[in-house]
Amino acid sequence: MANIPEYYAGKAVLITGATGFMGKVLLEKLLRSCPEVKVAYVLVRHKAGQDAQARIADVVNCKLFDKLRDVQPDFAEKIVAVNSDLGLPELGLSKTDQDILADNVNIIFHCAATVRFSEPLKDAMQSNVLATQKMVALAHKVQNLEIFLHVSTAYAYCDREVIEEVVYPPPVDYRKLIDTLEWLDDKMVAVLTPKLIGERPNTYTYTKALAEYLIQQEAGGLNVAIVRPSIVGASWKEPFPGWIDNYNGPSGIFIAAGKGILRTMKASNDAVADLVPVDVVINNTIAAAWYSGSQRHNRPKNIMVYNCTTGGINPFHWGEVGMHVIYNFKRNPLEQCFRRPNVNLTTNRLMNQYWITVSHKAPAFIYDLYLRLTGQQPRMMKTIDRLHKAMLVLEYFTSHSWVWSTDNITKLMSEMSADDKKTFNFDVRQLHWAEYMESYCMGTKKYVLNEDLSGLPAARKHLTKLRNIRYTFNTVMVVLIWRVFIARSQMARNLWYFVVSLCFKFLSYFRASSTMRY
């Protein structure tokens, strides 16, 4: 087989979701590492008064493309923005655009999806299932299509403990569900949703599973591959370490912890945090399309599925995640922290509620009261409410662990040349978590919050100030407790003196023991 850049040379690719987090990274990596790609068509809808061309112009002007801009100053000439809306019939494509795509495209990357876990079922079906059905229909019209690659999620079958690299049949016929949702009103759908999704935690995982099965049923003679990433985080190495541009997934939680707003979270310290860097997912995606496209004349009967996960190969637990986040944000603090970073993870719901009240709601209420008294707009309670909603969405994933088989990932790596393994590296055995978490935390500071690193000394001083305030507050509280409770009660004083004397006896004992050993 040709190596990966050679395979893509002269090919026309079509990408959906190119304005999203993963789509941007895919577009950048493909153009930078496969410089002979002929053209990249990107389906983009009008949004906020901007047409497709304007939105793509904004995308390619961001920092993510700086490295590509240095080596290929005219790279944007290869990107063709196509006005489209995946929610409309025939994807909202004009007849002219349909003909152009049908005549020219060789490879399709379908990355577009709604990632909102709390999306109403009708909306999730529209974005994740019906849009996929329309993309498959478009793929059937493409004359020289070599591979249709669909980006799914490793949690599509999270109701199973062991998830293999196969497409499982859903509990409902997706065709009947599509027909039913057309005539049911929103209230009725909301009532039926819990029964439909069953043991899955949300409509996102449910509809992503339906989309996979739809592809299997409607692909016909299409050559198809599916990549299933787990929790996608900041970049590991490319185009530079720690790149992230959104609050989705764990990033918003990390920032809230770094700001001192998040102090407690319902999670298991021992549960595997299946974080996977975005560049690992994209390298896996490009390589999977290369392999399946190269083998299209001798492809297997079943769809090639790749579980792009880390837990079974290089496990990292949520307790370790919390430790590294706090450590890194204490070393390199965010600007204007609310409190010093500190997070407590617990699986006990009552304990979690207690700490939410004490560490989240009470300080937020007091701070908002202060803002009102000083004539400012209160905001902390709203922030806390948004944070709790985000935590509730992630709670299921921070409290469970899964086992994913990765045989196809291993096979794919074995088929790659030594150069391709370096250029399109997705071997997570090489991932050093401490270094990655440091880059991730710094990435949220630089790219999400746009904080200049020159502000670090001031941020460290602010953190020291918060520490001194905390120590002062604790000292005052101890004095008040002594004056109000202990100093007025003979029994409390006796108990206090007993505890202090016991401590002195222990210290004397250990001192004597160490002297005797010496």
Describe this structure in words.
The chain has about 525 residues and is of the alpha/beta class. It has two domains: about 5-240 and about 275-315 and about 400-440, Rossmann fold (3-Layer(aba) Sandwich); about 460-515. It has helices at about 5-10, 20-35, 50-60, 65-70, 95-105, 120-140, 175-185, 185-195, 205-220, 250-260, 280-295, 320-330, 350-375, 380-400, 405-415, 420-425, 435-450, 455-485, 490-515, and strands at about 10-15, 40-45, 80-85, 105-110, 145-150, 160-165, 225-230, 230-235, 265, 275, 305-310, 345, 405. Helix 2 (about 20-35) crosses helix 11 and helix 12 crosses helix 17 (about 435-450). The protein is elongated. The N and C termini lie far apart (about 70 Å). About 40% of the residues are buried. The mean pLDDT is about 90.
TL;DR?
The chain is of the alpha/beta class and 518 residues long. The chain has helices at 4-8, 21-33, 52-60, 66-71, 95-104, 121-141, 174-183, 186-197, 203-218, 250-258, 278-294, 318-331, 349-373, 380-398, 407-415, 418-423, 433-448, 456-486, 490-517, and strands spanning 12-16, 39-44, 79-83, 107-110, 147-151, 162-163, 224-229, 231-233, 264-266, 275-277, 304-308, 344-346, 403-404. Helix 2 links the parallel strand 1 (12-16) and strand 2 (39-44).
